[in-house]
Amino acid sequence: IVSYKDVLARTSDESIRKLVHVNLGKIYFNRSLYRESIEQFGYALKIDEKDSTPKIWIGKNYSAMGEKDKARAIWSDVLTSDGKNTEVRELLGTM
Questions:
Q1: What is the distance between the alpha carbons of residues 3 and 24, in angstroms, rounded to a whole number?
Q2: Residue 58 near residue 51 (C-beta atoms within 8 A)
Q3: What is the C-alpha to C-alpha distance for residues 95 and 92, in angstroms, rounded to an integer?
């Protein structure tokens, strides 16, 4: 986490910053730090709002927190723009 934060402090390259935020979000998720994870994926979305990966992970966080309706809404939104997304279809199917 410290190394990723160091990269964020040293670079202004948006593609690198987005990748770092996504990776931090995954680390926080795996440590059950869901609010921190959502925050990181939110930063990634600000950089590229069309990328469905951060949205999918935000939904995973909400699902893990027991907020199934929020997760379902986010994943349904992803399907609106990417109807063939098999990961989202599977996630919605498990709810």
A1: 10
A2: no
A3: 5
- Helix (H/G/I), strand (E/B), else coil: 51: coil
The model's pLDDT over 2-41, given as tens digits with 9 standing for 90+, comes to 999 999 999 999 999 999 999 999 999 999 999 999 999 9
Rounded Cα–Cα distance for residues 73 and 43 (Å)? 19
pLDDT of residue 64: 97
In sequence order, what are the residues at sequence separation of 6 or more whose Cβ sits closer than 8 angstroms to the Cβ of residue 12? none
Count each helix (H run) and each strand (E run) in the chain, helices first: 6, 0
Query: Which two tokens mark 8?
Result: 């964020």
